[in-house]
Amino acid sequence: MARADAATEAAPQAGERRVARLDIHVGEIRQLFNSMDAAPFRERDLDPNAEQFIVEWGRETRADAPLALVVHLAREPAPADVESLRQAVREYFAHGATSARQRLRQLFRVGRWSLVIGVAFVAFAIFIGDLVGGLVGRYNYGRLIEESMAIGAWVALWRPIEIFLYDWWPIRAEAKLYDRLSAMQVDIVDIMPMAPAAT
Question: What is the pTM of this model?
Protein backbone atom coordinates (compact mmCIF):
# COMPACT_ATOMS: atom_id res chain seq x y z
CA MET A 1 0.00 0.00 0.00
CA ALA A 2 1.64 3.19 -1.16
CA ARG A 3 -0.18 5.86 0.85
CA ALA A 4 -3.38 6.36 2.79
CA ASP A 5 -4.86 9.72 3.72
CA ALA A 6 -6.48 10.48 7.02
CA ALA A 7 -10.18 9.76 7.12
CA THR A 8 -12.45 12.56 6.04
CA GLU A 9 -16.18 13.06 6.30
CA ALA A 10 -18.11 14.05 3.23
CA ALA A 11 -20.71 16.77 3.74
CA PRO A 12 -24.14 15.14 3.89
CA GLN A 13 -27.11 16.12 1.75
CA ALA A 14 -30.33 17.13 3.46
CA GLY A 15 -31.65 14.22 5.50
CA GLU A 16 -28.53 12.10 4.96
CA ARG A 17 -25.97 10.94 7.50
CA ARG A 18 -22.38 12.15 7.24
CA VAL A 19 -20.25 9.63 5.34
CA ALA A 20 -16.84 8.66 6.76
CA ARG A 21 -14.40 8.41 3.85
CA LEU A 22 -10.94 6.84 3.62
CA ASP A 23 -8.68 7.68 0.68
CA ILE A 24 -5.97 5.20 -0.31
CA HIS A 25 -3.36 5.86 -3.01
CA VAL A 26 -1.79 2.88 -4.78
CA GLY A 27 -0.06 2.22 -8.07
CA GLU A 28 -2.37 -0.65 -9.04
CA ILE A 29 -5.25 -2.57 -7.51
CA ARG A 30 -3.25 -5.72 -6.80
CA GLN A 31 -1.22 -3.79 -4.19
CA LEU A 32 -4.26 -3.93 -1.91
CA PHE A 33 -4.18 -7.73 -1.82
CA ASN A 34 -1.98 -10.33 -0.19
CA SER A 35 0.66 -11.24 -2.76
CA MET A 36 1.05 -14.72 -1.20
CA ASP A 37 -2.61 -15.60 -1.75
CA ALA A 38 -3.09 -17.63 -4.93
CA ALA A 39 -6.90 -17.52 -4.85
CA PRO A 40 -8.86 -15.90 -7.72
CA PHE A 41 -8.68 -12.10 -7.58
CA ARG A 42 -12.08 -11.42 -6.07
CA GLU A 43 -11.56 -14.12 -3.44
CA ARG A 44 -8.10 -13.04 -2.32
CA ASP A 45 -7.30 -11.75 1.15
CA LEU A 46 -6.45 -8.12 1.64
CA ASP A 47 -2.86 -7.16 2.26
CA PRO A 48 -2.34 -7.35 6.07
CA ASN A 49 -1.21 -3.72 6.26
CA ALA A 50 -4.16 -2.54 4.20
CA GLU A 51 -6.59 -4.57 6.30
CA GLN A 52 -5.15 -3.27 9.57
CA PHE A 53 -5.32 0.32 8.38
CA ILE A 54 -8.91 0.01 7.14
CA VAL A 55 -10.08 -1.78 10.31
CA GLU A 56 -8.44 0.75 12.64
CA TRP A 57 -9.95 3.57 10.62
CA GLY A 58 -13.37 1.93 10.85
CA ARG A 59 -13.08 1.68 14.64
CA GLU A 60 -12.44 5.41 14.90
CA THR A 61 -15.51 6.41 12.89
CA ARG A 62 -18.95 7.04 14.33
CA ALA A 63 -20.87 3.79 14.71
CA ASP A 64 -23.84 5.15 12.73
CA ALA A 65 -21.80 6.72 9.92
CA PRO A 66 -21.88 5.09 6.47
CA LEU A 67 -18.38 4.20 5.28
CA ALA A 68 -16.73 4.84 1.93
CA LEU A 69 -13.36 3.63 0.65
CA VAL A 70 -11.90 5.67 -2.21
CA VAL A 71 -8.95 4.14 -4.06
CA HIS A 72 -6.71 6.46 -6.09
CA LEU A 73 -4.70 4.63 -8.75
CA ALA A 74 -1.63 5.58 -10.72
CA ARG A 75 -2.65 3.21 -13.54
CA GLU A 76 -6.03 2.92 -15.17
CA PRO A 77 -7.66 -0.42 -14.28
CA ALA A 78 -9.77 -2.63 -16.45
CA PRO A 79 -13.53 -2.23 -15.75
CA ALA A 80 -13.66 -5.85 -14.58
CA ASP A 81 -10.93 -5.14 -12.02
CA VAL A 82 -12.95 -2.27 -10.55
CA GLU A 83 -15.97 -4.49 -9.93
CA SER A 84 -13.71 -7.31 -8.71
CA LEU A 85 -12.20 -4.95 -6.15
CA ARG A 86 -15.62 -4.01 -4.82
CA GLN A 87 -16.66 -7.65 -4.64
CA ALA A 88 -13.38 -8.73 -3.02
CA VAL A 89 -13.55 -6.07 -0.30
CA ARG A 90 -17.21 -6.85 0.36
CA GLU A 91 -16.62 -10.61 0.60
CA TYR A 92 -13.44 -10.26 2.67
CA PHE A 93 -15.09 -8.24 5.43
CA ALA A 94 -18.32 -10.26 5.25
CA HIS A 95 -16.21 -13.37 5.85
CA GLY A 96 -14.54 -11.57 8.78
CA ALA A 97 -17.95 -10.82 10.30
CA THR A 98 -19.00 -14.46 9.88
CA SER A 99 -15.77 -15.68 11.50
CA ALA A 100 -16.23 -13.31 14.44
CA ARG A 101 -19.76 -14.59 15.03
CA GLN A 102 -18.52 -18.17 14.89
CA ARG A 103 -15.92 -17.33 17.53
CA LEU A 104 -18.66 -15.70 19.61
CA ARG A 105 -20.84 -18.81 19.41
CA GLN A 106 -17.85 -20.97 20.34
CA LEU A 107 -17.06 -18.69 23.27
CA PHE A 108 -20.65 -18.93 24.58
CA ARG A 109 -20.52 -22.71 24.15
CA VAL A 110 -17.35 -22.83 26.26
CA GLY A 111 -18.98 -20.47 28.73
CA ARG A 112 -22.05 -22.67 29.15
CA TRP A 113 -19.96 -25.79 29.73
CA SER A 114 -17.67 -23.89 32.09
CA LEU A 115 -20.70 -22.71 34.02
CA VAL A 116 -22.10 -26.24 34.33
CA ILE A 117 -18.74 -27.58 35.48
CA GLY A 118 -18.23 -24.64 37.83
CA VAL A 119 -21.65 -24.97 39.47
CA ALA A 120 -21.15 -28.72 39.87
CA PHE A 121 -17.78 -28.13 41.48
CA VAL A 122 -19.26 -25.49 43.78
CA ALA A 123 -21.88 -27.97 44.96
CA PHE A 124 -19.22 -30.65 45.44
CA ALA A 125 -16.89 -28.26 47.27
CA ILE A 126 -19.64 -27.09 49.62
CA PHE A 127 -20.62 -30.69 50.35
CA ILE A 128 -17.03 -31.78 51.02
CA GLY A 129 -16.34 -28.65 53.06
CA ASP A 130 -19.37 -29.21 55.27
CA LEU A 131 -18.59 -32.93 55.59
CA VAL A 132 -14.96 -32.39 56.54
CA GLY A 133 -15.87 -29.45 58.76
CA GLY A 134 -18.38 -31.59 60.61
CA LEU A 135 -15.88 -34.40 61.12
CA VAL A 136 -12.95 -32.27 62.30
CA GLY A 137 -14.77 -29.12 63.29
CA ARG A 138 -13.20 -29.06 66.72
CA TYR A 139 -9.74 -28.66 65.16
CA ASN A 140 -8.40 -25.48 63.62
CA TYR A 141 -7.51 -27.16 60.35
CA GLY A 142 -11.19 -28.10 59.89
CA ARG A 143 -12.05 -24.44 59.37
CA LEU A 144 -9.06 -24.08 57.05
CA ILE A 145 -10.34 -26.95 54.90
CA GLU A 146 -13.83 -25.45 54.74
CA GLU A 147 -12.50 -22.03 53.68
CA SER A 148 -10.15 -23.58 51.14
CA MET A 149 -12.99 -25.47 49.51
CA ALA A 150 -15.11 -22.28 49.41
CA ILE A 151 -12.27 -20.39 47.71
CA GLY A 152 -11.81 -23.23 45.22
CA ALA A 153 -15.53 -23.14 44.46
CA TRP A 154 -15.45 -19.44 43.59
CA VAL A 155 -12.32 -19.89 41.51
CA ALA A 156 -14.16 -22.57 39.53
CA LEU A 157 -16.77 -19.95 38.58
CA TRP A 158 -14.21 -17.35 37.54
CA ARG A 159 -13.96 -18.44 33.89
CA PRO A 160 -17.70 -18.52 33.07
CA ILE A 161 -18.19 -15.20 34.86
CA GLU A 162 -15.36 -13.69 32.81
CA ILE A 163 -16.87 -15.00 29.58
CA PHE A 164 -20.43 -13.83 30.19
CA LEU A 165 -19.49 -10.45 31.67
CA TYR A 166 -16.47 -9.35 29.64
CA ASP A 167 -15.04 -11.58 26.89
CA TRP A 168 -17.96 -11.48 24.46
CA TRP A 169 -18.20 -7.70 24.08
CA PRO A 170 -15.05 -7.18 21.95
CA ILE A 171 -15.95 -10.07 19.61
CA ARG A 172 -19.47 -8.74 19.10
CA ALA A 173 -18.08 -5.26 18.41
CA GLU A 174 -15.65 -6.75 15.89
CA ALA A 175 -18.49 -8.55 14.07
CA LYS A 176 -20.53 -5.33 13.86
CA LEU A 177 -17.50 -3.41 12.58
CA TYR A 178 -16.85 -6.00 9.87
CA ASP A 179 -20.53 -5.80 8.92
CA ARG A 180 -20.12 -2.06 8.39
CA LEU A 181 -16.92 -2.53 6.42
CA SER A 182 -18.51 -5.19 4.21
CA ALA A 183 -21.30 -2.74 3.36
CA MET A 184 -19.07 0.28 2.67
CA GLN A 185 -19.04 1.92 -0.72
CA VAL A 186 -15.85 1.29 -2.71
CA ASP A 187 -14.93 3.72 -5.47
CA ILE A 188 -11.97 4.30 -7.75
CA VAL A 189 -11.51 7.97 -8.61
CA ASP A 190 -8.95 10.52 -9.78
CA ILE A 191 -7.16 8.02 -12.00
CA MET A 192 -3.92 9.65 -13.03
CA PRO A 193 -2.94 9.16 -16.68
CA MET A 194 0.26 7.27 -17.35
CA ALA A 195 3.23 9.38 -18.42
CA PRO A 196 3.92 9.23 -22.18
CA ALA A 197 6.79 7.01 -23.23
CA ALA A 198 10.09 8.76 -23.83
CA THR A 199 11.05 9.15 -27.48
Answer: 0.76
